[in-house]
Design brief:
The complex is a heterodimer of chains A (180) and B (227). With 180 residues, chain A is mainly alpha-helical. Chain A is 67% helix and 7% strand. In chain A, strands 1-3-2 form a three-stranded antiparallel beta sheet. Chain B contains seven helices and ten strands. A six-stranded mixed beta sheet of chain B has the order 6-7-8-3-9-10. In chain B, strands 2-1-4-5 form a four-stranded antiparallel beta sheet, covered by helices on one side. In chain B, helix 3 packs across helix 4, helix 3 packs parallel to helix 5 and helix 4 packs across helix 5. The radius of gyration of chain B is 17 Å and the shape is globular. Chain B starts with 6 loop residues before the first strand and ends in a 7-residue tail after the last strand. In chain B, 52% of the residues are buried. At the A-B interface, helix 6 and helix 7 of A face helix 7 of B. The structure holds adenosine-5'-diphosphate and magnesium ion.
């Protein structure tokens, strides 16, 4: 589960820098601890993102300690960086409507071709429930942060299952509408 | 999962007047297995649970518990089994309002002949396991919904039954307290090795089980009956 999209890695790093300057490796550690879960950041990603933030004036180099290598640099958030972070945190995320679903397409194609559409829905239900069991077991073993991440996924899977249930109940009506 | 099933319902039929509640439902539950019975409301889940638990007799089909043909057994045999081998959790209204919570949990032991002190000592241990020790001295009317359900789970498990029947045990709870009840119920069942028949229409509740059986219009699909 990747919980921070590529787009928001820069903003997330800004958020981690706001309390105080950090080295790149320290930033990666903090990121992985809070958001890395199954997808820790690569060092390459961290430094590429930091150099972009640097170029855009959102972070600055606080001090270059004697020695060589990128880890000698400490990054600090700038006022412009705080403004960007503030704006991002205050803006709602675009609710994802999932209006075009592959599953819906499959159901319609099954009805059009005379295949058993109910079986497609049943197969999907089984797969969804299996994943939900895995996440529920993982939740039992995890800390609170892990539980919340799993719960987020579980609620979304549950929403899919409700749709599957409703579609199953309306399959005959849908067939009449589709096969005309 | 090759163990011989402990509880088997085979091609069960049951009508209420003109309503066919079960029209060919089958299920097999193995020892220590947690099985979720899912399906839309009115699909026959509760009727299936009642038949499996020997509360209702099916019109046709067979329920076998171990070596016993539960669907054909005399009423006395069925109620003895329910008392000694089965535990029950329902959505609500199962605790005796005049008794304290610890007395409620001790009740099945008292009915089985255990003296009061040892029964209540065991009951307290179960309340602790269910994270409900603080309500021991309160009456059911004085505790929250989530606490009441945890007391009900403690009462269902206090005799260490072989099978726990739970019908929408979280149906009256919000998701936070519902999950808490499910976590504690399944932990306790896994510890005692009890099988659980868990009726629910909520996928997040069913996800605590090992697998699910879907009931639709009184029928189950693709259930293989081993043994
Ligand atoms: N005691 C009863 N008397 C009359 N009808 C009943 C009785 N119990 C269940 N039914 C009917 O049988 C069907 C299945 O009910 P039930 O097993 O309670 O479904 P579920 O638990 O899945 O909601 C429903 O149509 C219900 O109205
Ligand atoms: Mg019911």
């Amino acid at each position: 589960m990747c919980i921070v999209t590529v787009m928001s890695i820069g903003l997330t790093l800004l958020g981690l820098l706001e309390p105080g300057p950090r080295h790149g490796y320290d930033l990666k550690r903090a990121y992985d601890e809070h958001f890395g879960q199954d997808h820790p950041l690569h060092y390459g990603q961290v430094y590429a993102t930091l150099s972009r933030l640097l170029k855009n004036g959102l972070v600055e180099l606080e001090a270059v300690e004697p020695g060589a290598g990128p880890d000698r640099k400490r990054y600090a958030i700038t006022d412009a960086g705080v403004t960007d972070l503030d704006g991002w945190l205050g803006r709602p995320e675009q609710p994802e409507p999932y209006l075009s679903s592959t599953l819906y397409t499959k159901v319609v194609l099954a009805l059009l071709s005379g295949r058993p559409a109910a079986e497609i829905l049943d197969t999907q239900r089984t797969a969804h429930l299996a994943l939900m069991r895995t996440l529920t077991r993982r939740k039992a073993a995890g800390d609170l942060a892990d539980q919340l991440v799993c719960d987020h996924a579980l609620f979304h899977l549950e929403a899919d299952l409700r749709w599957l249930e409703l579609t199953t109940a309306r399959l005959d009506a849908l067939a009449q509408e589709v096969v005309r | 999962m090759t163990a011989t099933p402990l509880l088997v319902g085979r091609d069960l039929h049951r009508t209420f007047g003109a309503t066919p509640a079960l029209a060919g439902a089958s299920i097999a539950v193995r020892p220590a297995e947690i099985v979720a019975v899912m399906g839309p409301s009115g699909s026959g889940k509760s009727t299936l649970l009642h038949c499996l638990a020997g509360i209702l007799r099916p019109d046709a089909g067979q329920v076998r518990y171990g070596e016993v043909d539960l669907s054909a057994a005399a009423d006395a045999t069925r109620s003895a089994l329910r008392r000694t081998e089965f535990g029950f959790v329902f959505q609500f209204g199962q605790l005796v309002p005049e008794l304290t919570c610890v007395e409620n949990v001790a009740l099945p032991l008292r009915l089985a002949g255990t003296r009061r002190r040892p029964a209540e000592r065991t009951a307290r241990e179960w309340l602790e396991r269910l994270e409900a020790a603080e309500v021991a001295g309160k009456r059911p009317g004085e505790v929250s919904g989530g606490q009441g359900q945890r007391v009900a789970v403690a009462r269902a498990l206090v005799t260490e039954p072989r099978v726990v029947f739970a019908d929408e045990p979280t149906g009256a709870l919000d998701s936070y307290h519902g999950e808490q009840v499910m976590r504690l119920l399944t932990e306790a069942a896994r510890r005692t090795g009890a099988s659980v028949v868990l009726v629910t229409h909520e996928p997040r509740v069913a996800a605590y089980a090992d697998r699910e059986v879907i009931v639709r219009d009184g029928r189950t699909r693709d259930v293989e009956l081993v043994g």
